[in-house]
Amino acid sequence: MAKYNLGIDIGTTSVKVCIVNLSTNEVEAQHVKDTQSNIPSDTGHSGNKQDVFKIISTLNLCVSKLPKHLLQEVEAIGVCGQMHGVVFWKNDATQKAWEIIEKDTTIRYDVVPERVSNLYTWQDNRCDSAFLDRLPKPQSHLNIASGFGCATMFWMKKHKPEKLKKYNCSGTISDFAVAMLCNMNKPMMSYQNAASWGYFNCATKQWNKEVLQQADFPVNLLPEVGQSGAIAGSLAGDWHSIPKGTPVGIGLGDLQCSVLSTVERSTDAVLNISTSAQITFVVDQYQPSSGPPKASAVDHFPYFGHQYIAVAASLNGGNALATFVKMLQQWTLELGFNVPQC
What we know:
The protein is an alpha+beta fold. It contains ten helices and 22 strands. A hairpin with a 4-residue loop joins strand 13 and strand 14.
């Protein structure tokens, strides 16, 4: 009998799920839905936040739309998502940040809003250049930027310390989803996601805890880090017909997963045009330094195994694509055709 894997991608604008036949490597079923989760930011146009409750509700809905007879045969779950953003939550001995609701011999997960922050996404620009210049230099080959998890946490520590004290866990949105599915007390984060937060030494595979502690950073919120591709835990209950105990992989970076699913030869490069845009290729035998980071148009992020990917990213938040669309609309108007404006 064929066995299947469930793939989950929690992106910037939508949730995508698919069931892959392990015998043929073909996608047997899939579903995609926009999360419509963007909410106004307390910092105005410079901030970018999303409602985690809406994201998880969309995840539940997408999985529920897949055929039950295939879900019953799922033997592993893989999760990836937007890499740089951060969400905070509170777990303790009496209550977690989610509810496990049983119905008709299966379960669903609901977020407890008062125990979970909004998702501060990679598009968040509250950390301006002056603020970033005051931060300590990372012991890493990768620099820090606005929208990176550790930069956002530095900003929260300075400007909203009381809000930060409400929580004892943090992670990317995929880390939160994995912790929820496995009903974990503390999250696990992959090397891929940790590198995307800043202040992670890829050479030693450790957070820059000493540097961060000296800067009064809340290091207690940083998750434990594990090998990309490792199993984080097992499903806490029968979730939309997927059997309880099904292994769930540690959360992965959506960029790395897009490369993994696209390259066919070691000489291939991947051009990804989505909310941002990147051109990427896999590098063998890259050795990251312990910093300080050097200015470069190309960054190297952890991939799978001991490999890295070289990434040239515009990090434009979709602005370049939006400008291109508006240009086409203007040309069309000048030619005498009426095109709706975005």
